[in-house]
## 1
Amino acid sequence: MQWETVIGLEIHAQLSTQSKIFSASATTFGAEPNTQASLVDLGMPGTLPVLNAEAVRMACQFGLAIDAEIAERNIFARKNYFYPDLPKGYQTSQMDHPIVGKGFLDITLEDGTVKRIGITRAHLEEDAGKSLHEDFQGMSGIDLNRAGTPLLEIVSEPDIRSAKEAVAYVKAIHALVRYLGICDGNMAEGSLRCDCNVSVRPKGQAEFGTRAEIKNVNSFRFIEKAINHEVQRQIELIEDGGKVVQETRLYDPNKDQTRSMRSKEEANDYRYFPCPDLLPVVIEQSFLDELRAKLPELPPQKRERFESQYALSTYDASVLSASRELADYFEVVAKTCGDAKLAANWVMGELSSLLNKDNLEIDQSPVSAEQLGGMILRIKDNTISGKIAKMVFESLAAGEGATADEVIDKKGLKQVTDSGAIEAMLDDVLAANAEQVEQYRASDEAKRGKMFGFFVGQAMKASKGKANPGQVNELLKKKLEG
Amino acid sequence: MHQLTLAEIARALADKQFSSAELTQSLLSRIEQLDPQLNSFITVTAEQALEQAKAADARRAAGETGALLGAPIAHKDLFCTQGVLTSCGSKILTGFKAPYDATVVEKLNAAGTVTLGKLNMDEFAMGSANESSHYGPVKNPWDTSRVPGGSSGGSAAAVAARLLPAATGTDTGGSIRQPAALTNLTGIKPTYGRVSRWGMIAYASSLDQGGPLARTAEDCALLLHAMAGFDSKDSTSVDQPVDDYLAALTQPLAGLRIGLPQEYFGAGLDARIGEKVMAVVEALKKLGATVKDISLPNMQHAIPAYYVIAPAEASSNLSRFDGVRFGYRCENPKDLQDLYKRSREEGFGAEVKRRIMVGTYALSAGYYDAYYLKAQKIRRLIKNDFVAAFKDVDVILGPTTPNLAWKLGEKNADPVSAYLEDIYTITANLAGIPGLSMPAGFVDGLPVGVQLLGNYFQEGRLLNVAHQYQQVSDWHKQAPSGF
Amino acid sequence: MALERTEVEKIAHLARLGLSEGELPHTTATLNSILGLIDSMQAVDTDGIEPLAHPLETTQRLRADAVTEANQREAYQAIAPAVESGLYLVPKVIE
């Protein structure tokens, strides 16, 4: 049986406003419990919500960025249920009239192809507080600092067909919200949360299978694992004669499995109705026009520009445009050294490895874009070889010089390009290895290839890596030919 | 001193006939002496009142003037008063000392009023008899075996018994106007959005409005002017300047066009009340008004629509009362669900629980369209009726209630029969227009009220008509015997 | 549209109102009487009528994004039934 996976994602992005969506409390992460919970946030009797203009603006920016319909009016609705982290006993959200309607986001897959993922809607709502389950003598502790933080819930169409596509989509949303400056995308802190709706169906079947929802998966890696695990679970279940139950599940990264959540609300009836404390929100066309004019260059446009302006492959262009910071970094390097291809290679290669190794973000890079660009310039003008450059790079990273030139100078890493000097060095090498020279001259083409490498190695050793490799090759060949 | 109206008190204080402290002390003693018969107060804030009175006297000595400077009032117990028990007449708010002041309270404090205490009310404003309070029923000073009306029953009883000159109340389906009618007072529910709801604990958010109860239209004008105004903390508050209600009082009524809805004078109305209403019409005609028959064809559907919308909104508004952050918590909850269910079951009274359940049902899956949505469509029909009517008339006049004050306990067996008492008042809340009730005489020694309804933001006009009527009548001056 | 007791139990649960066996019949009867009143709405022709959610058909005002609330945890928690280390305590929440 051939199976097809169908995935829809609901992403909650915490908007990076100063104050909460309906109250003027701070939204800073990590404050002492309940020190950022005002009367409104606590759901005190008699309190009322007033809508944060910035949350509206950010939601509209997102809508424009995904080419979505943005309705003239949107309405807040109450989602009623009881839970200790929900002080009013209802969450103010949006139901029938969300602020952002249908849109789409293009994602680049590993093979370089671009796939369009539909976005059904995005709406504003308030976040709930947090339950701390550490024991307070059999009690749980509730912190309402987070209650009232603005969320943008982004709902995708069930257009996603694999865990990898899902990750690409989440990464694209992550990049987009950071590009727009509306969310910091910090999944570890919960600024970006992902719920995955997963189902399977026999290939070719039109109907969707029953889906399970995996809630609150908080890293790209876990998203991939959780989905893969869930797909496996569902297929095995069905093949064993069972039925997939529509339910909410949690991913346990330690056990790498999903488990059914002890249901919060069983089959809940949320009794949505328009919130009578809030009025319909009007979005004027002029407001949208102004907002559109001020949108920064977005990932799809940047990717296209990188492809055309810098002649990069689609894949390279999408990697480099994945985040605004990375794209900006790359462009400074490219400008400084005048060679986009080299810049791309170094950024995606050595720099990337360095950052990953030490778990650093691009804006924490120990090597600045100017430093890297300056170094690549020295490769281009033959001051150093590619190999030596790696050493220079490491030195820069260790803070051993303010510029590549400084390091090259300090450590005497300048490439030797004087053919006279190289010849002299080579003569010494050949003289020191007379036997091997004999052997070489006596061997055929095939054997020579291998032996040639030996001499190159010796030459590099003798010159402490500083001899220009191209010249070494050329001159060595000549000398060995005899 | 207790016979004086707010306006008279203002003049007396200005003339230094007595101080606010003296007046306050005198009323506090009166409350102590007489309120046990009425049970109109839940909390008497004697110490704070005297402090406020002294402060007001000091402000006056420093040269400040102001119609409400040093005026004694009290607040219906759903207005949050910082540091003072705010109970909404419910056990579930036991121990709830409000951590802030309602905007109405803040504004009146700023104007220099002296708060004597918090007034009894139907639990969470749900009721028309003030019999559902956790703190016991309130008695009508005109006949203490009868109800004073509700939900602002405590406000009405206290003012009618001259325990204080005026009080704040709230009106969601008639809860200012109906008790005013049953206790011989003037009370006004302003246009929706006119008075801030910040700190006014919600029953039905799209229907609730705060307003004054007093013995005269002039006093209502004084108090409403200070209560009203835009508040940025309330999204439903209207950003429109407050009219000069006092100045509007003296406008002559010549040319006033009064509408009499034919639907008002049908089978359900006590004929004797009908007579009193027509007598008022005659008096107003003598003052220069003209009268026209009009129709409000959808009026009869107002009660079912109200009893869907109000409970629906209330069912959601009251979910925050869960024993977690404030108020009553049941003892030894064995788990979370037990905490919720028992705290709410023990904390809420029967009528509140009924309405929460009706509201929950009306919003539940499968019933939303047939109940909630349907009710909102009827709501629009009712509004349309008024919009049409006000094209031809300036005010709509009729009885405030279909019956006189009934006996305590009489309607307990059948809550629906109490709901039907709201027939004249409810439409104003659904449409959001202002409504006023004023004294119109007595039947069997019990007060009768006449209701005036006006177009949006026509509070001034309603107060004007009432004031002019009160210049040629003296029902409003009569006091219940024994008080 | 009369309610059966199972529906009444469901409604009570949704509203987190404890309802004892003993109360159930009376509560069911009273609710049905209220619903009887409400059901008269069905006779009204509301075809083509837009629902009215707010009496004054105005629109939502927006607030500038600024933090103006200070920490008042002590004052607000002074009236709480159970707090510890700044947290509100409830019977253990099991996920």
## 2
Amino acid sequence: MKLQDPRPSKWLLFRIWASVGLQSFGGGASTTFLIQRAFIEKHRWLSMEEFMYFWNLCVLTPGINLVALTVLIGKKLGGVWGIVVSLAGLLLPSAAITCLLAATFLQVENVAAVQAVLRGVIPATGGIMLIVGLNFALPLIRRSYKEGVLYLLASGVLMIACALAIILLKLSVIIVILGAILLGALFFSPGRGSPVPEDEEEQGEQQ
Amino acid sequence: MINPLIYFLLFLKASLFSTGGFSNLPSLHQDLLANGWAKESYFGQSIAIGQISPGPNGLWVISLGYFTYGIAGAALALIAITLPALLVLVISAGYTRIEQRTWVQGAMHGVSLAVVGLLLSVVWTILHQPGVDWKGLLIAVGAFGLALSRKVNILIILGLAGLAGYLLYR
């Protein structure tokens, strides 16, 4: 596929990102889809390979992957100002609407009907969140399975241990993540032999 | 009284040590409640509003900011979720040099597992809100099933859940 010269005007860039932001309901997947359609298919400023490479870097970046992706695409298409207008386009209109919805909610919060509706919506968000977790977990489980049953088992134990460390032990999130980085580097590095016995994982969580 | 600087740093810390839009929840949940700056109910409500409003999932934090500290809170939250993303520039510059090291790959596997664990704790937090009873849990299971099928739009699922709430709890 022949790429077009990636030098869009800042105003055009802003408008594209704003439309991506405003059209993406229901989060991540639809946003990613809209970005691919706008930048790869419609305007041909990016190749799919480039997009995948960007995405891998974003997974390693803290915070919201899509925001990091916006930074990388913005930089490629317009340098520092490209980053600024892309972030502004993706975030500001959507954030303004979020504020508006939150403000509206505070006005009607005490209406009995709203309370009742919310008591239905909140547990539903829990169910949806479980899907988000599942989406993250599946590729990990698949990769672990390829490494062997012990590796898979150890991965599962670490996963559950992290959840329990927060729910039951009320450990700070940072400690849990740092613990997982350490345990991962020690025991999940390729070519380091078989993974850890379970009791060592527990220890790591209690540090 | 909310101290704006500490408030911002709490949001920034939560964002720096998260991946994806929701894994900053446990950290914010711990810190804001410990300081008495948020009510338990804000978290479920913010996530619900985040799901309804456009933009990446992670914008639920904007609504948490608004509930806890008004427009200033929303603005601080927005900055706090934007700044860590800029680190991608550093990572992009440095990653090619270390990606082959085995410990990096192992550490990444560990982080990814922790992220899933954190999400599970988020689910637990949401389903542990006051007001979620067995009927609420059934709604959660229903929403999970509908979302799993990938055939139903999230907004429709939330709409159905709202309708169920209206009929069950009115």
